[in-house]
Design a protein that fits this description.
heterodimer; A: alpha/beta; Rossmann fold; 2 domains; 5-stranded parallel beta sheet; 16% strand; B: mainly alpha; ABC transporter involved in vitamin B12 uptake, BtuC; two-stranded antiparallel ribbon; two-stranded antiparallel sheet; 15 helices
Chain lengths: 437, 349
């Protein structure tokens, strides 16, 4: 009985301490710096809010990407509200929830955002969008996936992709490889190492779809899990297939494992390695080690840090002030850009439909945002990624990517913007039944 | 007002009744009214959470039969739910069969797969059986990912449930469908526990050697427990597929399987009430955690980056650990203690 009371007491003390420590840590932690060039809002945001829904993987197995992405979009909204005066005086209200990379949570979150009157929602992973998209499509609630798999936008419904998808990454890399790297005779031999989910299958489907057309021979296809710690066995099989090029469709940590194992087996350097955009981040370089990933190529749909584009200065200022650890992480750029695109959508919707219609946050408001916001987009995203513009039948808003390479540990652009034309999956209904349903 | 200080039964039928007193009946009817009028005062989000809880409850009831009553540890329950979900998805989505056919087939298919993976239960038990069922989780997911009919890694779309031309296309209509099936499943489980089968399950759980000596066919009853537990998992999977509308194998991870065990343990194993309380507790806790990070970040803007989002899973873990330490017999035991003290009040003994 006595020990039970002691346990109760210990529990209560622990919880109290946990709560008490929060403000203490806030006080002791690195104080957020003020932006170096604070700007007085030109038009104070004093009108009714515009609700922007965000389902973010802040925790869980995808937090390595979700956390910087969450920071990027929340910082951008802070910037829009505080420095730009919101959207025509209407502040953007970020309605965000942590989905923990859990599909059941994602399904309830999208319902919550609809109930909250959000005008549209965004996810930062294709898995979370896939868990949400059918609910949103059924309700006509528009959504934008920062990172997407072809199935998110095929066939086109109410879900849009901020940037080209994992399939487009493969197509862009393959074209770049054939034009600039491949010097051999005949068809280059391609090996694929794919994450066992839509992130990986997105690249794999595009490879299947385009291999013949591009003149590439697929000699090996291996898969891995998001939590893999060794791929020596699969990489040994790939080595035996003697590929010229290895394409990895995955996320940062497993991609780092694959590249490290390729290095340990002597396969790399030797073969050319290319990565799809979900894996090609600062985190991958940090996990694998800069020496090991030196020379690895990757496709990414945004600019890189430090480039001379109009949106870079403000984004850098906010990142360094509020989330300095994210500086150098391309995912931060993606989601900062996502918030700019979201703000532009809201601006168009307010101008075309009026605030009162949007304030209802109902099906009519969603239709208005989709028809008069998303589908009217024609915006350069301040150079942070390719321009966003809706084309009928293609729900990818940005349609260009760039090829990067790890040079001296830094992710460096080696190409200009490459068009990523839509891959006609629907022409292969036997292979891709999802594209026609 | 007279308080109940004893309930006297004058017939076996009365003694065996699930609801024995007028108070029981009144509370039961009030609960049903409260549940089935929820769409009148709950928004779509709350109904969505209730739907998720209802689906989870059906699966947890199945696991409770398997683990709580029969003592057979299964760490592959999410895999069996996946079997049901994909069976329903393929039958109703690809082959356009009626929802009810898909629902029943989902249960039967999951039950049959459960039978197969339950075979080792005759030879191994406890953690060893747990390891065998983990294999089920991985094998099932591997098959789902590598069969073209299931959509492979990409996944498969699932239409709305419909019965006789009525389409369950709103959160409220789905709520009625899910809750009706959930109530029927709970009622089935409660009654099953009072039958010869239920008593055989409990005997096997308490001491399988003694049960066999008493003439209980261990192989038959253990496999029956696997079949029933997995049948209910399949039913839950079918409802989940129609509710979410899109299935992908990643939705059925091993952590989900472990979470189901957690729900049964926290609710109280081997009681009809346990899964209900466990599911409500865990699912509400999960939903609560979803709000914590945004709330903390807005309340304490000076918090270091990542601290607010990191505190949510930590609190989730702390609450569960504290709960298991302070009430290892589950929430249903706490409810029994409350009921006992209510009956005896104001006397302590």
């Amino acid at each position: 009985m006595k020990s039970r009371k002691l346990l109760t007491l210990a529990g209560v003390i622990f919880l109290a301490l946990a709560l008490a420590v929060m403000p203490l840590m806030a006080a002791c932690g690195p104080a957020p710096e003020e932006p170096t060039t604070p700007t007085t809002p030109t038009t104070p945001a004093v009108k009714g809010p515009l609700k922007y829904g965000m389902s973010i993987c802040m925790t869980g197995v995808a937090a390595e990407k979700g956390s910087p992405m969450g920071h990027g979009k929340l910082d951008a909204i802070k910037y829009i509200n505080e420095e730009l005066g919101g959207i025509n005086g209407h502040p953007i209200e970020a309605i965000w929830y942590d989905n923990s990379y859990d599909a059941a949570k994602a399904a309830t979150i999208v319902k919550k955002m609809m109930s909250d009157g959000a005008l549209f929602f965004t996810t930062n992973s294709s898995k979370m969008m896939m868990a949400s998209q059918e609910i949103a499509n059924r309700a006509g609630f528009p959504g934008i996936a920062s990172f997407s798999s072809p199935i998110c936008t095929n066939p086109p419904q109410h879900i849009y992709a901020q940037m080209p998808d994992y399939g487009d990454d493969f197509a862009a890399f393959a074209n770049y490889y054939l034009a600039n790297i491949w010097k051999g005779e005949g068809k280059p031999k391609l090996a694929l190492h794919l994450l066992n989910n839509p992130t990986g299958s997105g690249s794999g489907d595009a490879a299947l779809c385009l291999a013949d057309e591009l003149g590439i021979e697929i000699v090996a296809t291996e898969e891995h899990t998001a939590t893999t710690i060794s791929e020596m066995e699969s990489m040994t099989r790939i080595k035996a297939a003697n590929p010229d090029v290895l394409f990895i469709g995955s996320t940062p940590a497993p991609s780092a494992v694959v590249i490290k194992n390729a290095y340990e087996l002597g396969l790399y350097p030797g073969v050319v390695i290319g990565c799809a955009h979900a894996s090609f981040t600062k985190a991958m370089v940090a996990i694998a080690g800069a020496d090991i990933v030196e020379g690895v190529y990757g496709v990414f749909p945004t600019c890189s840090w430090g480039e001379d584009v109009p949106g870079m200065a403000k984004m850098t200022e906010y990142c360094k002030a509020y989330h300095p650890k994210d500086y150098g992480n391309m995912d931060y750029i993606t989601s900062w850009a996502e918030a700019l695109v979201g703000a532009e959508i809201l601006r168009l919707a307010v101008e075309n439909c009026g605030y009162d219609k949007l304030a209802a946050g109902d099906a009519a408001a969603w239709e208005c945002v989709e028809k008069n916001g998303i589908q009217k987009l024609d915006y350069d995203v301040e150079g942070l990624h390719g321009p966003v513009k809706y084309t009928a039948g293609d729900n990818r808003l940005d349609k260009s990517v760039r090829v990067f390479q790890v040079v001296s540990g830094e992710i460096t652009a080696v190409s200009g913007w490459i068009d990523a034309p839509r891959i006609p999956y629907e022409n292969f209904p036997d292979k891709f039944p999802w594209a026609v349903k | 007002m007279g308080l109940p200080c004893g309930t006297y039964n004058y017939s076996y039928a009365k003694d065996m009744a699930i609801l024995r007193t007028k108070t029981h009946w009144a509370l039961f009817i009030a609960l049903l009214i409260l549940v089935f009028t929820a769409p009148l005062y709950c928004d779509n989000y709350l109904l969505g959470v209730a739907n998720l809880m209802g689906i989870t409850l059906i699966a947890a009831v199945g696991l409770n039969i398997l683990l709580g009553y029969c003592g057979q540890l299964s760490i592959g329950h999410a895999g069996f739910i996946a079997v049901g979900a994909y069976t329903a998805a393929v039958l109703t989505g690809t082959f356009e069969l009626p929802f009810l056919v898909g629902l029943i087939c989902a249960g039967l298919m999951a039950g049959l797969v459960g039978l197969f993976f339950g075979i080792p239960s005759l030879k191994v038990k406890g953690f060893y059986l747990g390891i065998a069922t983990i294999a089920a989780q991985f094998i099932i997911i591997w098959f789902i990912n590598h069969l073209s009919i299931t959509g492979g890694f990409t996944g498969i779309a699932v239409p709305y449930a419909s019965i006789g031309g009525f389409v369950f296309d709103t959160e409220a209509s789905q709520f009625y469908l899910i809750m009706t099936i959930a109530v029927l499943c709970v009622f089935f489980a409660k009654n099953l526990a009072r039958t010869r089968i239920g008593r055989a399950f409990v005997a096997i759980r308490d001491n399988d050697l003694a049960a066999e000596v008493m003439g209980i066919n261990l192989f038959y009853y253990k496999l029956l427990a696997f079949f029933i537990g997995c049948f209910l998992a399949g039913i839950a999977g079918s409802l989940l597929a129609h509710w979410i509308g899109f299935m992908n194998a990643e939705q059925f991870s091993i952590s989900e399987s472990i979470l189901y065990i957690g729900m049964v343990i926290i609710g109280g194993m081997g009681s009809a009430l346990g899964p209900i309380l466990g599911v409500i507790f865990i699912r509400l806790l999960q939903q609560g955690m979803m709000f914590i990070a945004p709330m903390l970040e807005s309340a304490f803007p000076a918090l270091p980056a990542g601290f607010a989002s990191g505190i949510a899973p930590m609190l989730f873990g702390v609450v569960i650990v504290l709960f298991l330490v302070l009430e290892p017999r589950g929430l249903s035991h706490r409810w029994m203690l409350f009921k006992a003290s209510y009956r005896l009040w104001p006397f302590s003994y």
